[in-house]
Design a protein that fits this description.
Layout: H1 2-47, H2 53-65, E1 67-73, E2 79-81, H3 83-88, H4 100-106, H5 112-125, E3 129-136, E4 142-153, E5 159-168, H6 170-184, H7 194-211, E6 214-223, H8 225-232, H9 234-251, E7 257-262, E8 265-273, H10 279-295, E9 298-300, E10 303-305, E11 308-316, H11 323-339, E12 344-347
Parallel strand pairs: 11-12
Antiparallel strand pairs: 1-2, 1-5, 3-4, 4-5, 6-8, 6-11, 7-8, 9-10
Helix pairs in contact: 1-2, 1-6, 8-9, 9-10
């Protein structure tokens, strides 16, 4: 997993570095095109001559970099798109006439206010324009774009135009989401991993201290899991883990946390429990539900697999007031339950801690 995360980070950094370099180069080329190339192209078109090589290179650089240049006349609302931009909005080159109104209508409704505010800030302050936003294609496809640019002013300091570049970053957004998932979720079950577990447990304890509520931490270890891996293969073992994760999620509230912290070990965090509850009775009912749910036979590729479980329970603030002590107590209770036989649970209070 570490190698995978590192590889994604390298790809993201390379893409960001490439964007900065290309954006700077293309803005410079755009300025040249504005001051020189348009006039050359118009003269060439009238004379029926070939487009100059520098303009052709400019177009090719945009095509291969998948970056397009744009300029927007603030007063007339006229909008220029280079050829590379049409496809970013779901159109063929020449299929539509770019306009500021069409651009605004293409931006995702939830992002329009942000984009407009960025444009106004750039016009009023001269700050660089740099926004990420979604666009909706005519067929309903949603893509992510990143737009950078700045304002052009006349001799009197009045903003007359904005110019810049735009790039499709949909793939990079997908990489970032995948990276976030790898960093925060167990890859097999989709549950929270150890990092997220500790973050949520810490937050739950802080909330418990403020509201004077209880937090219940349950460590769960599967019994007989190694035999399933050895006898039926790791694919069967993976299916048992996935099934266990689903069953645990179905037992708790959406506000509670279900995590897998490695191998066949799972953890539950139940927060916001009233201090008036008979906590031992509540835990007894919950643990019996967990044991029953996890001991239900699982059919895997025509084979019936049955596993047992051992549970260790620690309660804040009854058994510990700090996160590390609470985790240690639940862990000790789980191993004590494991020593006493299959499908057992132990409370931190039964350890004398």
């Amino acid at each position: 997993m570490c190698l995978c995360i590192g590889g994604l980070l390298i790809l993201l950094r390379r893409a960001q570095r490439r964007e900065r370099d290309l954006s700077a180069r293309l803005v410079d080329l755009q300025a040249q095109r504005e001051g020189v190339s348009q006039g050359i192209c118009r003269q060439c078109a009238q004379a029926g001559e070939v487009i100059p090589e520098d303009v052709e290179r400019f177009k090719r650089s945009q095509y291969f970099a998948r970056i397009g240049t744009w300029d927007w006349d603030v007063d007339t609302q006229q909008l220029y798109w280079s050829e590379a931009i049409y496809g970013m909005f779901g159109y063929q080159v020449g299929e539509i006439t770019p306009s500021y109104e069409r651009f605004c209508n293409s931006v995702h409704p939830e992002d329009r206010e942000q984009v407009r505010a960025g444009e106004l800030r750039c016009i009023e302050t001269g700050e660089n324009h740099d926004e990420e936003y979604r666009v909706i294609w005519p067929d309903g496809t949603v893509r992510w774009l990143r737009e950078t640019g700045n304002v052009i002013k006349d001799a009197h300091g009045k903003a007359i135009k904005m110019m810049g570049v735009v790039r499709d970053i949909t793939e990079e957004k997908a990489w970032a989401n995948q990276l976030h998932s790898l960093a925060h979720k167990d890859a097999l079950t989709g549950l929270a991993n150890r990092l997220v577990l500790e973050q949520r447990l810490s937050a739950a304890l802080d909330q418990g201290r403020i509201l004077q509520t209880r937090v219940v931490l349950i460590f769960i270890d599967l019994n007989g899991f190694k035999a399933i891996n050895d006898n039926y293969g790791h694919a069967a073992g993976d299916q048992v883990l996935i099934t266990t994760a689903k069953r645990l999620k179905n037992l708790v509230r959406t506000a509670d946390t279900v995590a897998r912290i490695g191998g066949d070990e799972f953890v539950l965090v139940l927060e916001g429990l009233s201090s008036d509850l008979n906590i031992e009775q509540e835990i007894h009912v919950l643990c019996e539900m967990i044991i029953q749910a996890l001991s239900t036979p699982t059919d895997i590729a025509g084979r019936t697999c049955v596993i047992g479980t051992s549970l260790g329970v620690a309660v804040f603030p009854d058994h510990a007031t700090g996160m590390d002590d609470l985790i240690h107590t639940a862990d000790l209770a789980m191993y004590d339950a494991k020593r006493t036989g299959d499908n057992q649970y132990r409370l931190g209070s039964q350890l004398g801690v």
